[in-house]
Amino acid sequence: MADQLVIEHLSKVYERGEVLALNDISFTVKKGEFLVVIGLSGSGKSTLLRCINRLIEPTAGKVYFDGVDVTAASSRQLLRIRRQMGMIFQQFNLVKRSSVLTNVLAGRLGYVNPWLSAIHRFPQADMDLAMKNLDRVAIRDQAYKRADELSGGQQQRVGIARALMQEPQLLMADEPVSALDPATSHSVMKYLEQMNQEDGVTVIASLHFLSLARRYGTRILALKDGEIVFEGLPDEIDEARFKEIYGEEAEHVEVR
Amino acid sequence: MAKKPNTLKSGKSRGPFASWKTRFGAFLVDWALWGYIAYGTMYLLNYYWYTNIHYYGRLTVPTWGWPIVVLGTMELAALTHAFTQSIGLSMFGLRVLTPEYRFPSVSARLRRYLWWQLSMIALPVSLVKREFRAQLLHGRMSGTGIFLKKEVGDEMPIPVPRAWYMTNRGVFAVMLIVVTVWVGWLSTEINLHSLATRASKTSYLWKAFTAPNFTHMFTPDPELVVGANPDLPASIFTGLIQSLFMALLATGIGGIIAFPLSFLGARNMMGFSRLGWAVYWVMRGLFNMVRSIEALLWGIIAALWVGFGPFAGVMALSVHTIAALGKLYSEQVEGIDPGPLEAIAASGGRRWQVILYGVIPQIIPSFLAFTLYRWDINLRMATVIALVGGGGIGRVLFYYKGQVGRIDSAWNQVAAVIVIIVIVVWFLDYVSGRVREKIN
Fold first, then answer.
1. Shortest CA distance to B214 belongs to which of B403, B396, B384?
2. Which end of chain B is more exposed for a tag (fewer CB within 10 A), N or C?
3. Do B170 and B254 belong to one domain?
4. Which domain holds residue B280?
């Protein structure tokens, strides 16, 4: 399989706090992989994901997506690249006061006629697609409710439906289940797995729990203090590696 | 995350000392406070001079006196800085300590104060040489330095706990309050004697309230004009209607103009580029400047521009509304949840699509609430904008006030107008309060 995403010597320094969030990160992601990024809070997981679509501007290094240099893209090119990368977030990042349907349609903004979107008009095909995607994450009946009326798990499914609207090649999930309880976590992760296996979408997900990473990941990347400390298959993480990633005092916490 | 050590840009270690900017800021605060006390003292001396010694004289400071005052307050600031935990030091979270994080001895503090004199002479050199900025001459010579409390952390020595009025800051604060109240009392000519003895002067007005005269409530008073046409007599009612619409239009016009401007004045919308920051600061400055000029003052300008009448009133209120709502709106924009913006940008949305789909749905309710609130304020302003020629019910009020001494019932007419204003303002205040509750 071809390398879909190539990261070369990526670094990020936050000026204000003089903090080195990412330090010379290099790795590749193949088409169709389910890559899980693990690490403690503040290890640089979120920064890494946001540097890939340049929500955060990297300080140094290169990101190639399908052979295109993302870091050198003009703002117009960047819009085209971004619409191929879906993203879901820890805090769901929905507009709470807008309806579920509006939130889902917002995922299509990169494709639609900008003038029509300015007056909140979407083509019928997109409306149908939105309903289809809501159906897929089993919340079609909630389409006209306000987003904040939904439970946490349902809100994250709205987030997934919004990402599906982009018909993405790559899906980035930034701690998608950290704000959810364990039972709901699995239902959300299963939708990601489904996208990965049925639609062939490459998934990069950052997760807190090793158990979730082992269950869903085809490959694992571990970050510590902005550096890669492990890269390999889920089974290769033994007790020693675990301590290395999470520190000596860490205990196993399972999410079943 | 790895944190870089506390280094200077040149790469050399700054040591644990606070940056010269915070130290300088703390010093300026103390200097200014001593300057304030010096001014207050001179005011009081002056007052004593012309009330008790020489009525026609003024106690003036000779030209050569001013440098002495400036230098004297500077010395006082340096003394408080060296010997006490002053207000300036506290404001910036600073402490004077030895490099071992202990409180310096009295002799070290005295040396610090004495060497400080030389330090000030050598100040230009110290500011140019980066390494000296960390610890000036007087710090080096006395073995003391100013440290940031939060960087010293747990090693911070714990001072002897004292009641607030026994601390240096407490004593100084009491001094500030005494000077402020004393000078303020004399300056504003507060006079308890007239307060107690002249109450009867208002009795006409209070009596009039028992019999307000509503003759011209709807019947036009042939002498009274509220608009530009001198041949169109007005009643209290026509004045009221004019004021209501003045407030409504001013709020509408102001709100519509403030809406787009508020995005230009919001940090999170503009902080992406140098140009953005420039626009942000210009907008912020404009909002604050225009807002700080009261609507009544804008009324003077408007009346000069378009002539006396309600149009001038609308203009004045609109200008003030733009600035006031612009500031309130932009603070709302700054307070929004950035998550949805990030999500829409990540899916390939353009900047304005992010605003349209991410920002606007979040701010609409609070914008509406603030606009209603502003309408309240504008209505109250519309009742007095006539003072500078803005028309409306205020014109009616000031007309009848002007007739006192000419018409017997003038006070009763004034009372009638005030009653109407109170009822209408109270009612609309209530309505807009209820509507604001419903929003959100």
1. B396
2. C
3. no
4. 236-438
Query: pTM of the entire structure?
Result: 0.76
Give dist(CA B135, CA B113) in Å, integer: 14
Confidence of residue B15 (pLDDT cuts 50, 70, 90): low
Model ipTM value: 0.90
How many residue contacts between A and B have a Cβ separation below 8 Å? 101
Residues in chain A: 256
* CB within 8 Å of A25: residues ≥ 6 apart: A7, A9, A10, A11, A44, A48, A61, A223, A226, A227, A228
Whether residue B343 and residue A42 make contact (CB cut-off 8 A), yes or no, is: no
User: Per the domain annotation, does B190 fall within a domain?
Assistant: no
Among B8, B14, B332, B347, the strongest candidate for a mutation testing the A interface, having the largest count of A CBs within 10 A, is B347
Residue A148 has pLDDT above 80, yes or no: yes
Interface of A with B (CB under 8 A): 17-21, 23, 42, 44, 53, 55, 79-83, 85-87, 89, 91-98, 102, 106-111, 114, 117-118, 159, 162-163, 165-166, 225-226
Amino acid present at B127? L
Measured at the CA of A106, the angle between CA A101 and CA A107, to 5 degrees, comes to 105
Domain boundary among B167, B185, B203: B185
Report the Cα B65 to chain-centroid distance in Å.
32
- Cβ distance B344 to A109 less than 8 Å, yes or no, reads yes
- Tokens representing residue B284 in the block: 């912020």
In angstroms, the CA A242 to CA A251 distance is 9
B203 assigned to some structural domain:
no
- C-alpha atoms less than 13 angstroms from C-alpha of B239 in its C-beta half-sphere: 35
